[in-house]
Batch of 3 targets.
Target 1
Amino acid sequence: MKFDPEKLPSIVDVTAVAENTTAQDVEFTMNVAKTYGCAAAIVNPSYLQQLMKARAGRTDIRCGTTGSFPFGCDGTAVKLYGCQQSELLGAQEIDVVMNVGEFLSGNLELTEREFRLLAETLSVPIKVIIEAPLLSDEQIVEVSRLAADCGVHYVKTATGFSGGPVAPAQVRLMKEAVGDKAKVKASGGIRTVAQCEELIEAGASRLGIGVQSALAIFRELDSMLGRESPVIL
């Protein structure tokens, strides 16, 4: 995918998913998304309905949430139930953390079962977070291919809670593994327009970026394109 600076915000999921996120942060996140025309705004489940109200008719911006975040260690039934409740509340996309420990223990049966249940039970796009910083290259390829074969919509690099910035090489491995069966979302430590360009050209179709970092990137982009940065309320 070729990088187009004008269209960068349209593939960014701007997020507010830290444990200390406040109601004011949620409003600010949606304001950033609306101002720049982001793909989606993502918050944790307790703030989902507030996020939807803050969208105020901007149906071009999707309201998303998280599942089993940030560790992915809930039981399968609990994980699925939480995602179902978010869907009922209006979530349009859900970023779900896989059970990394079970995968690393060799429990591929559980990993595959979770992927299939999520993909087949939920009607909204699912982005499975594999926590690439905790995996070897071979494991990244294996679990990305498994997720795509099970029907998930996106394979996502990381929560951003478990390692350094996402590497273009990881994205490239994931994209090669999923082919046309799924898309790749890159997330974790994205701070500059140059990083965004590298990740998009490596195969990322979406970028997950915390709201403050996203705003800094958008302002850098404004400067590059010779336009004045808007005021965010």
Target 2
Amino acid sequence: MSQVTYLDVKESKEIQTYIRMADQSLSALGFTEHAFPHVTKCANTAYHLLLDLGYPARTAELARIAGYTHDIGNVINRIDHAQSGAVMAFRILDKMGMDASEVATVISAIGNHDEGTAVPVNPVAAALILADKSDVRRSRVRNKKVSSFDIHDRVNYSVQESQLVLSKEKHTVTLYLTIDTEICAVMEYFEIFMERMLLCRKAADFLKLHFGLVVNGQALL
């Protein structure tokens, strides 16, 4: 049985369709962008995080595959989309010929990425959580009319720069944010994202790292 690669998954017309139509559904619901820029960024961040930590290349590639497919469940419904996406990914990856143990790793990561139910059950899941929850940026906001922003738009639009930085020497992974406080107060960021940041802390702990959050030069976690 040949290994299913990230390139195989990325070139799958079936997966591309689910990503595109899932994002269309979220657009209709008023959510930020969850299309190819988001899933590609998540895929690459999770991949490089595990590689840099010394995990096997195949484990890192499974994280990349999980990152690329993690939001396809939104095509069914935003509610429980992690679990829906895991079931969808099982069918697709099994049909592509992926080994059962690898399918299990990927779908457990997808099924455990949403903060309502997520647990970093394996390194792939932990890397996906950190990659997904750290993707906060202005370009994900669809509505560009500041006067009509809700708090989610305002928080994302306020982020001028975001970077997830790993320090193997210090055993830390830190999310650095530059926020325009004229658009959003730092406390509003915490109002929306505190649960996500606590989940990032759990994911970092699983990888034997300390999670840090630095906003406008001030360490907050």
Target 3
Amino acid sequence: MNTPICDFVNTYREKETLRLHMPGHKGKKLLGMEGLDLTEIAGADSLYEAEGIIKESEGNASRLFGCPTFYSTEGSSHCIRAMLYLACLQAKASGRKPVIAAGRNAHKTFLTASVLLDFDPVWLTPEKPDSYLSCLLTPAEVERVLDEYPVTAVYLTSPDYLGNTADIAGIAAVCHAHGALLLVDNAHGAYLHFLPEPVHPMDLGADLCCDSAHKTLPALTGAAYLHIAQNADPFFTGEAKNALSLFGSTSPSYLILQSLDAVNGYLADGYREKLAGFVRLTEECRERLTAQGYTFCGNEPLKLTVAAKPYGYRGTELADLLREKNMECEFADPDFLVAMVTPETGADGLTRLTEALLSVPRRTPAAEMPPRFSLPERVLSPREAAFSPGETLPAEACRGRVLAAVTVGCPPAVPIVVCGERIDDDAIAAFRYYGIETCTVIK
């Protein structure tokens, strides 16, 4: 597959053109990649008005993913804001008030978008929630909310940070039967389309979706995709660039654009076979560790999420033990250790991880329980609270106060309390458990 952005930049660098344009380094080495770093000069195209090499590269990505795909150089956070804007705009265009129901484990970017776009989320929670980090909803649970509220879009995080994936196909069917869109934060699952049996949200019925290319594909940090369903209203593809430009920098990184462009070639050149083989190796690693007594959570193939306490440790303790062996995991908290792997980890890397965990002696299971999940009382809309004067206090002194900051979340940016909600005893207990020491509350 051709790589038009990379080809243009390499040709430009080889010409040794006198650079009378931004960036200020003028292609001279400081870190080493400056010669590849451009701005929107003649021939380089423009990300939000793409008619040349960027449009061609996005077309390549669209063919690979099987749906209209647009680039972001500012991560899934950028794409989340854009797709929520599109959902709100489409609702208003059809004469409806935007009402967005969201799984409570939404990333904080969803909250910043609700403040910017001025919508008040309807929170979706399972009948028996067991974690702040996960929100495993069934189609029936979503349907009950859609029967009660005039929801125009449902927003889910799948896979979540622990590697749990939602029933996207079942929930999509429910949403479409109720005339609602399904939006999916698939930041951790860009590779899912390339499994032997594709399970990417766009393969399962989602209307709009974001991927962080940098999380699971060999792209630079900040590389991301906004996907729109092949059968979606043309309104969405027509407005996608405007939506992205509303929230994006006017100076998109050409290093990241080249990374996205190069990934197209990588995906087209035997990636499916490489991925399938590596998934098998990862499953073998999981099986060896399970036989040793480890407990795993989630069903995402490239995420090894250890429930640490049944093995007698906190997740943070296991992370420290791996760090001593020069291994750094994606995430650890009192309950979980999350190792994200990709084919670039390689068989040797999986073996190192497996042997390191097998060398950890098993202990008596830890009895400490995580905090009870509860949904705090809503007092103000997120926008009203975020634009209210606040003061920062010790978390223990905030009982009964209304949160002003966009969110106070347990790692990794999943809300315990959302701006406009009252901080209650359960929230205080969660703050204590996750080490949150201060909160910004409304004066």
